Amino acid sequence: MPGRTWTVRLTGHLDHTVSVTCSTAACRVPPRSKDAASMRRFAAEHIKAHGRLAGARPNAACSCGSADCALHESRVHCSGSSLLVLVHNLAVGQVWTLAEVCQTCARNIPHITILATAKPSVPTPAAPSAEQPAQRTAVPGGFSSPEAAPDPSPGRRRPHRPHRPNRSRG
Prior knowledge:
The strands form two sheets. A five-stranded antiparallel β-sheet has the order 2-1-4-3-5. Strands 6-7 form a two-stranded antiparallel ribbon. It is built from three helices and seven strands; from the N terminus they run ββααββαβββ. A hairpin with a 7-residue loop joins β3 (82-87) and β4. The chain is α+β, with helices and mostly antiparallel strands. The chain has helices spanning 36-54, 63-66, 103-108, and strands spanning 5-12, 18-22, 82-87, 95-102, 112-117, 138-139, 143-144. Helices cover 17% and strands 22% of the residues.
């Protein structure tokens, strides 16, 4: 599944107005405005809203790798979990890019914020077959469930051990 990318751009015009554009055609953005600060806030919140709605997908390919590593300088071999990252250089401040990238590419991209990490998909357990007995599940913390305890053989009893109080050395 190809990785997704969104870009929100703040553009200045000759009449001293600014406009916001989003790479998603269906997004509604405000008209041009002379209030550059409010348009900058809108652009930053708009890309964050895309991030909240999108989330990172565990089966997404690295969008950076499929775009010839355009988000970073050196070419790398894509590997690792899928991350949803926000790329925004505060020195430039006009472009926000949200992308699904792999962990290796994320290490090489300057000015990023990791918004989400894809959780590996958990395979659904198959029903045990008649030839294969059901496996007993261990309880977290290293203790097994009571059902997992072996049955003592009939006619044999465990030896009785008297209770010994803990003695602390002082």
